[in-house]
Amino acid sequence: SVSWMYRVTLLRHYYVYFENSSSNPLLIRRIEELNKTANGNVEAKVVCFYRRRDISSTLIALADKHAREMEEEMENPELNPVDLPEKQKHQLRHRELFLSRQLESLPATHIRGKCCVTLLNETEALKSYLDREDAFFYSLVYDPQQKTLLADKGEIRVGNKYQADITDFLKEGEEDGRDLAKLEEKVWDPSSPLTEKQIDQFLVVARSVGTFARALDCSSSVRQPSLHMSAAAASRDITLFHAMDTLDKTGYDMTRAIAALVPQGGPILCRDEMEEWSASEANLFEEALEKYGKDFTDIQQDFLPWKSLTSIIEYYYMWKTTDRYVQQKRLKAAEAESKLKQVYIPNYNKPNPNQLSANSVKPGIVGGLVNGQTPGQTPGLGRACESCYTISSFQWYSWGPPNMQCRLCASCWTYWKKYGGLKMPTRLEGERPGPNRNNMSPHGVPMRHSGSPKFAVKTKQAFYLMTTRVTRAARRVCQDIIRPRFLARHPYLPLNTAQIKQECDLL
Fold it and tell me: Cα(101)–Cα(500) distance, rounded to whole angstroms?
């Protein structure tokens, strides 16, 4: 039997094949975590990747448009895939994946081997992926819920929208035509008459005033019950910024600046987000951060709707400077150290249910040729391979709907499982080396066949609706109730069958 024989240790961020169906292609996933369940089994938390066959034709057209735009931007003609043969273009489509942010948990026993997935590099030739086994690339992100595709890379933002326009120097006597009110406001003058020592002394005064203000404030005395804690809170950046702003507004006059720190109403108390938030709000924030990460919009909506987005973001960056953050970081590191980092996957030798035995292979006639062979082929013991048209293989596998009796050779079956398609392109994508019954309509017209069983020809079931005599009579007798012309234009309106039946009983 064909099987993936391997002995590997799987680590986090490995790309692997998962098998969820004996007949469908393997799933491609990236391992994020390895967890042990209560019954001792190992589960892998994985990121999902999707193949072209998994997304809608509308999104495929969008992906192809994106690929064409990338081809046009390529300066090196050797990297451009336009000149590749049709067969290689066809196989290259099987190497393209679409990343998603979707996570799922799968049993580690379903892992069938490792593969390699990389973000498409514009400096790398696409043909290089065909030269490597189990190599895939992606450039777009697929959202299964919203059914959208987005580019998975940062954008270099160049232009007037993102960079400032550097204006020419004003000539002598020329006025600046810009609205100066919309320009920057200077908040500090480094060439002020004050010395560094005087500025430092004023900052000490500002901290002292801040400590005294906290002693007078009831809520602050509860949050910082000790003098040491109050002094530490008064030494935060918000106090220093206020002090320097006061100096600038008073024209760097120390006397006026000190007077401004203690107006008539009492000393000014400056608090930042770290001090404004209560302990319960801080706990809510940490819980939200654990659940959503740095998605501050979701954190605000679900956990802290009374806080502004600016307040939450400012608090986050202050929280990262605290001992609490350092402690949590150490705990997470210790937890990660205790988690499973690798798992041993034994050899997988179970026979595939799609594997055909020698007795199950029956001769077939395709287009007047025995076993579907091309002219010049020798009749064999069964149909030719649907992909490469070989008639000899050490093992065959059934492929597609059972009534079609299609099969693949061992090599093409492995290709189908790994890459999700057939090796050879269809007639619409390029000429194949021989006829195939599944690509022809009953009248010999070529039909599209994507290499997937879900696109196989289905037999349409005919039906005949036979009405009773009473029903046919009611159409004429009860025309005023049925109103056939009106109902023909409004087919979903309900019909009062009881009234019609009562009318017919009177006849």
Answer: 57
**127 and 147, same domain (yes or no):** yes
CB burial class (10 A; 0-12, 13-18, 19+) of residue 18? buried
What is the pLDDT at residue 284?
A: 92
Tell how far CA 303 is from the center of its chain. 24
Q: How far apart are CA 33 and CA 43, in angstroms?
A: 8
Report yes or no on 166 lying in a domain. no
Contacts 24+ apart (CB under 8 A), 128-132: 129/92, 129/95, 130/88, 130/91, 130/92, 130/95
Classify residue 111: in a domain, yes or no. yes
Torsional sign, CA 301, 307, 308, 313: negative
Range of the domain at 316: 279-338
**CA-CA distances (angstroms) from residue 226 to 223, 231, 236, 240?**
9, 9, 16, 21
Amino acid at 489: R
Q: What is the mean pLDDT of the chain?
A: 78
Instruction: Kindly state the DSSP code that residue 456 receives in the 8-state scheme.
Output: S
359 has pLDDT over 60: no
- C-alpha 499/C-alpha 503 separation (Å) is 6
Kindly state whether residues 325 and 363 are assigned to the same domain. no
